[in-house]
Every structure is written in structure tokens, then in C-alpha cells.
């Protein structure tokens, strides 16, 4: 059994957005590029991830509606670990998206097409959510690395679980 076409599309769409946002966000944080680059990445990532939120909600809805395929190539223990890993990814992505909105100290300009009002105005609460967001982004990077390494491990050992997520 494979994932539904919608789940496959939403998975790869999510992967591209999350990996881009994570890598570019860490690039800005650790390499201190020129201000125009930093501002562009910030604007683009905020716009992109704001647009991504309803797609992520749809992805979670499809998970509950269709579930995930039973994987006969994995042991029961490996299936349990994979299930917990996926739950951690979904929960962590949720925290990143929610805190990303709550840490904004201005209205969210989405690709100069529309604005989302600033949800909070208390500076100390905004600072708190900013700190949680940074930690959640770091945790998400580790979870993504673990997810990719697990898929590679299975692929290299001849258990082609990646085919479940391909059209």
C-alpha cells in the first residue's frame, strides 16, 4: 500500500518549503549575510511559511483521513519508532509555525499581496515566542536529519520504503 496522491504531493511540497526555510534561516543566523540578503530571506521565509500553514493543516487532515501504509519491510519496533518520529515531526512543525506567527512584532506581509495582523503586542511575550521558535527550529533540523538518515539507512539496506512516498 502507498500513500495517497494528495499525501505524496503534500509531503514533497512540505519537504521543499521546510528544508528551504530551515537552511536559509540557519544561513542568515550563522553566516550574517549582507543586510539586503538577510531582509529578503526574512521576508520570503515569513511569506512562504505563512502560505504553507493551510497546506500543513491539510496534510495533517489527510494523515488522519487516510493514515499511513502498513510497512511490511519494517519490524514492529521499527514501525513504532517511525510512528513516534513522524509524530515528533508533525508536533515540531506545528510549534515552529505557531511560534513563527506569534513572535512577529509587526503585521505579516505575505508576498506584498495581503497582510496578516500582528497577533500579539506585548514585547516580553513576543520575545518568549521568538526564543521558543528558535529552539523549535533547531529541534526540527535534527528531526529532519534523523528522518532523512532513517530513509537512507532503509534504502541502502534494500528496504525501499521511499517508494511509498513516490508517485
Structure description:
By secondary structure, this protein is mainly alpha-helical. The protein has a single domain (5-165), classed as Fumarate Reductase Cytochrome B subunit (Up-down Bundle), CATH 1.20.950.20. The chain contains four helices and two strands, in the order αααββα. The chain has helices at 5-31, 35-66, 76-102, 123-156, and strands spanning 108-110, 114-116. A two-stranded antiparallel ribbon has the order 1-2. A hairpin with a 3-residue loop joins strand 1 (108-110) and strand 2. Helix 2 packs across helix 3. It is elongated and about 50 Å long. The two termini are 12 Å apart.
Give the CATH superfamily: Transmembrane di-heme cytochromes, Chain C
Helix coverage percent: over 70%
CATH topology: Fumarate Reductase Cytochrome B subunit
> What is the top-level CATH class?
Mainly Alpha
The run of helices and strands is HHHEEH
Shape category:
elongated
Strand tally is: 2
If you compute it from the alpha carbons, what radius of gyration comes out, rounded to the nearest whole angstrom?
18 Å
Output the strand order for the largest sheet. 1-2
Number of domains: 1
> Beta-sheet strand percentage?
under 5%
Largest sheet: 2 strands, antiparallel
Q: How far apart are the termini? A: 12 Å
What's the oligomerization state?
single chain
Structure annotation, total helices? 4
Mean pLDDT over all positions? 95
* Low-pLDDT windows of residues: none
Structural class: mainly alpha
CATH architecture: Up-down Bundle
Amino acid at each position: 500500500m502507498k500513500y495517497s496522491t494528495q499525501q505524496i504531493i503534500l509531503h514533497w511540497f512540505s519537504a521543499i518549503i521546510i528544508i528551504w526555510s530551515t537552511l536559509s534561516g540557519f544561513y542568515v543566523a550563522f553566516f550574517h549575510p549582507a543586510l539586503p540578503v538577510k531582509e529578503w530571506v526574512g521576508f520570503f521565509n515569513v511569506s512562504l511559511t505563512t502560505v504553507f500553514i493551510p497546506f500543513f493543516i491539510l496534510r495533517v487532515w489527510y494523515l488522519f483521513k487516510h493514515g499511513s501504509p502498513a510497512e511490511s519491510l519494517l519490524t514492529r519496533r521499527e514501525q513504532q519508532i517511525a510512528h513516534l518520529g513522524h509524530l515528533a515531526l508533525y508536533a515540531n512543525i506545528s510549534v515552529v509555525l505557531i511560534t513563527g506567527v506569534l513572535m512577529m512584532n509587526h503585521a505579516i506581509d505575505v508576498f506584498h499581496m495581503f497582510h496578516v495582523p500582528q497577533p500579539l503586542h506585548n514585547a516580553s511575550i513576543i520575545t518568549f515566542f521568538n526564543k521558543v521558535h528558535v529552539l523549535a527550529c533547531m529541534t526540527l533540523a535534527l528531526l529532519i536529519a534523523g528522518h532523512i538518515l532513517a530513509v537512507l539507512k532503509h534504502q541502502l539496506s534494500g528496504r525501499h520504503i521511499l517508494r511509498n512516498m513516490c508517485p
